[in-house]
Design a protein that fits this description.
Number of helices: 1
Structural class: mainly beta
Strand content: over 45%
CATH architecture of the largest domain: Roll
CATH topology of the largest domain: Pnp Oxidase, Chain A
Largest sheet: 8 strands, antiparallel
CATH class of the largest domain: Mainly Beta
Order of helices and strands: EEEEEEHEEEEEEEEEEEEE
Number of strands: 19
Length: about 260
């Protein structure tokens, strides 16, 4: 397809898969696309280095002006729907698997306080089958205490609840993901984008070869809406490439 001389607009709809570099080795596996609401590429910043004349008759005139790069190309992105691997980077979190099997806990010792939550030895417990007793093995009615089964907390609601000295319950079988967040994490990421240029209805491809990406925004779990996170990083040019990113506009018509 010959490069045309006529002007045209660019209006893109894109989806970007991503993968993580391993040292100097490119990704060999890629995750499904994230729902990026922003993926802003900033070209290398440049400043001019001017040579003004100091000669009589031309003082102040430029004898030469050279542009020199002062900052590398960079990426700023925002997303609100993504694979867990990208959520981990967003939160600065190491991700591990949560796994707990069902088992009974009998007569766990506890020292309650009226009106205050006291931690149990386990989390994720069954809401049924809980039994609380005094040190003399007198059963205390459930109306005198409350249990937070997710966090594994016990609260005495009154003086009678405060007489509880041991509690029996069952740990639930649970699986999930653990995010140990707040760390200074970054990863080298490669983006493979496919899209449609809407004004011409032609398909396109956009590749960001290598960006040192890190979470750059805030995490607010109580906004009452979808969590939207920000990322930022400097773009590198791998030894096998000639630029930090590439856009390919195709002669393939959009379906």
């Amino acid at each position: 397809m010959a490069i045309p001389v006529a002007s045209r607009a660019i209006y893109l709809n894109c989806a970007f898969k991503f993968g993580f570099w391993s040292g100097d080795t490119e990704p060999t596996q890629f995750y499904d696309p994230a729902n990026f609401t922003k993926l802003e590429i900033t070209s290398q910043k440049q400043e001019t280095d001017d040579l003004p004349s100091n000669m009589d008759g031309s003082i102040g005139d430029l004898l030469a002006s050279v542009n020199k790069p002062t900052d590398s190309a960079s990426l700023a992105a925002e997303a609100n729907y993504m694979p867990p691997a990208l959520f981990g980077l967003l939160l600065g979190a190491d991700i591990s698997e949560l796994s707990q099997s069902t088992s009974a806990v009998t007569d766990e010792a506890i020292t309650p306080a009226v009106g205050l939550w006291v931690p149990l030895a386990n989390r994720y417990i069954e809401t049924t089958g809980i039994s609380a007793k005094t040190s003399g093995d007198v059963v205390v009615a459930a109306s005198h205490y409350s249990v937070d089964p997710i966090n594994g907390l016990f609260k005495a609601l009154d003086a009678t609840g405060a007489t509880v000295a041991k509690i029996s319950y069952t740990k639930s079988t649970r699986s999930g993901e653990i995010y140990d967040g707040g760390k200074a994490l970054s990863k080298y990421v490669k983006f493979l984008g496919t899209g449609t240029e809407k004004t011409s209805q032609k398909r396109c491809r956009l590749v960001i070869h290598k960006v040192n990406l890190a979470g750059s925004g805030t995490f607010d779990p109580v906004t009452g809406t979808y969590v939207s996170g920000a990322f930022a990083g400097k773009m590198l040019t791998p030894s096998t490439e000639t630029s930090p990113w590439r856009y390919e506009y195709l002669d393939l018509a959009a379906a």
